Structures are given as structure tokens and as C-alpha cells.
Amino acid sequence: MLAKRMRRFRFARGMSLDDLHAAIGGLVSKQALSKYERGIMQPSARTLNQIAAALGVKSAQLWSEPAYRVKCLAYRKRARLGKKEQKRIQSFVSEALERRVWLLDRIGEGNRLNLPIQELWVKSVDDAERAASAIREKWNLGVAPIANLVNVLEDHFIHIVQIDASDKFDGIAAVARDADETVFAAAIATRQGTPGDRDRLNVAHELGHLTLNPSEEVDEEKAAFRFGAAFLAPANQLRRDVGERRQRILLEELVYLKRRYGISMQALLYRMRNLHIINASHYRRWCMDINKLGWKKTEPIEIPPEKPERFHQQVIRALSEKMIDEREAEQLLEATVEKSSLKSLTERSAFLKLPMDLRRSLLREQAQRMVHYYQNNQELTKDDGG
Asked: Which tens digits make up the pLDDT trace of 137-153?
């Protein structure tokens, strides 16, 4: 267990063995660290404590088996990520979800996930459309555009994790299962810095991967994309806005629709083509115009990115009610500050070598920024009779 956990925590922080060796001040050799991770040798108690401190975890987290097993669902088939980057992202998401599950247990929220995990059978891409409608109905969302998708998912106990990664990464979903294989929690991870319209569709796409169970004849990616588009722009509502059939769509209308639905103009055009609102010829003309205008990657109208907040609120709640201490709060919040976001090995090493009081101070400041929200959030502050 120690070997697997140590390797995963190191990958999650984007650290090489050289990085870890530097972070523990050369207490043992890099070769010894490698042997620990391969299960050939066991570290002394002093060395284990140093490694845990360098990784920002408790020693017990390195040798104890978690109550829940986290599994990342497959990357998109067209993903161009290298194996090293895939491991880093999977490790980071697994740790992030593991910590969130631990916190849920501590504050007594338990399993409140209300989502059919890979249960909605899809025999054709059109079935993904109906699946999206089913989830909207299950969550009483109606058919109107969703103002803040991240808030909706967090309200339904789906954890949102944002990662500093290359633009080759779009998103990935993960689930945590208990010993009985019951799904206890789910997470969706996307890349920090992605334009809001693209990120919303990426999140909805991963929600499709969490819920759909496509047959072998169905392209899983097409089904997830169709689910995401239908979840954000339901067919009935979009037809009310633009009509059943259109000969052409003008730029001014696309701009309005982008702001209304919070997805890119390109995604909207593709959606209207799938729904036969516009024909294939008009869609192709728009695609050529978008390429000529240089809007393929960056469209002229920006949609602000949505930020997850619930985890920070839960940490502050637990700290305020003395369910966790400051050190535990520090470790939980530190899990949201990915070490690979620091620009170089020098900066990473410098961060790891900061005095503990300073590290705590920096993270405490981060926590304080959420205090006002916590104190004014009725759901978190109401008396539950406990």
C-alpha cells in the first residue's frame, strides 16, 4: 500500500523523484525513494514523516488504505496527452476526490449523490438526447438555459476539480466506490484557464460520460457530446428561440444565443445542424467563415469561467465547527493548489521549503476569503437539529 500511495501522491504534485529527493533535503538517496515506491524497501519512521511532509500529507495517509476506491473514467479517445501527463492528472483527481469524500464523512453529509452512474442505456446517439432530458427532469431543471452549470452540479453533490494542464487536456470524470462497489461520490475535472463557453460544454460532456452506458455500436465521444449539448441547450427551448427551420443564421443572433446558453457559437451551429434547424450547407458555410475570421479557437464574445466553491465552503464549515483542525484544513485546501502550477522546479522547491507558519498563513488567507460567504450561506449555517 505504501508504495502505491507514495507514487500516486508524488504524481499528483507533478514531482519527479529528483524533486522529492530535494524536498526531503537529501535525507535518503533517490535510489532509496525508488525502492520505496516499488515496494522493495520500507522507509524508517523518520524518513516516512519527511516524505509525508514534502508531499503535504499525513504519514498515515501513505500507509493506510482509504475506505473508498477512486477510479478515473477513460480519457477521450482523441486525447493527445502523454502517459506521464495522464498519470499526473489521474493521480491529482483521485487524491482530490479522496479528500473530498473524507471531508464529507467528517461533516456527516454521507452519500447524497443523486445520479445514475453509467446506467442510461444508449443504443444510438439520439438516445443521448433523451438521457440529457432525463437528468434535467430528475433534477427539476426544466428546459430553460442553465445560468451556472458548476453551481448546479455542486448542488447535486458532483465535485468539480480544476487542473492546471496543457491545452491537450479537456476533462475527465471519476467515481469513488466503497467496499460493496457502491458509488459514493463523483467528480468532473477540467482545465483551468479554458474559456467559459468551452469549459461549460466540457463539464456537460463529462457528465455524459458519468451517466451514459453506450452500446458497442455507439461512438462514446459522439454520445457524450450530444448529451452535453442537449443538457445545455434543450431541443424544445432552442427551437422556441430560433424556430423549427431556418434558411440562415446571422452573427448578431449567434452572439445572443451564445450569451443565453453559455456555449460557443460553433457548438450552437453544430447543435442546430443536428436538430435540422439549419441544413448542412449553411453549417459548412459558417464553419468556413469562422476559420477565415480566426475564431476557431478564440471567439469574439467571452463567457466568464465558472469557479467551484462548495469544497472551500465545506472546509470552512468543518473548521468553524471544530470538526477539523487548522492543520487538516491546510492540507485540504493545499490539495486545490496544484504544485505543477508553479512554473519551475526552483519555485516548487521554494514552496515546499517555506516555513510551516508561512505556508499555513498563506492557506489561512485563502480560507478567510470564503468566511463571508460561509457566514451568509443559509444552507451551511442553518440548525439541522444535530
From this structure: 999 999 999 999 999 99
